[in-house]
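Comment thread on ticket #2218

A.B. wrote:
> Attaching the input chain for the structure job we discussed in standup.
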Amino acid sequence: MENYNWDGFYKKAKIFAIIIVSISVAYYLVIFLPGKEKYKRETEENKKVEQEVAKKENDLEQKNASCLNNADRIKKGIEEHNSQYATSLGIKIMGDLFYSSDIGSCIYFTREIIPNDGVQIVIRDAVTDKIIEINKKGEYESLVEKYKTSNE
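C.D. wrote:
> Ran it. Output below, let me know if you need it in another format.
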């Protein structure tokens, strides 16, 4: 039987163990920790973005709700106009009412049927009743889309 050199074996085992531990520590410090921190930062940024989006949606909902508070006043005004001026100035028909972030105000649409002039679409500020736009082409859906897409 051969005499086995245990001292050389222990030295090689210790060297191998030190190499394995060194590689493990290097992996932990160079790859694992930076990846973990990067993932943590990304999740925090995603949470912030989600919170901002939720806040904007909530603000828009509140502004639209406040717009709806003006709806009764606007409808009464249109009914009064129709009862007084239907034969001379024409009839107004209430359309959409919503908050437009493009204008920064609550707006509403009316279709106005004017004798001898046809139909026109009038967009007004719901608070001041100031005219924003008049369109005689009758492109109602495209106008609504134009002002609603500014909310997104």
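A.B. wrote:
> Thanks. Noting for the ticket: Residues 5 and 11 are 10 Å apart (CA to CA).
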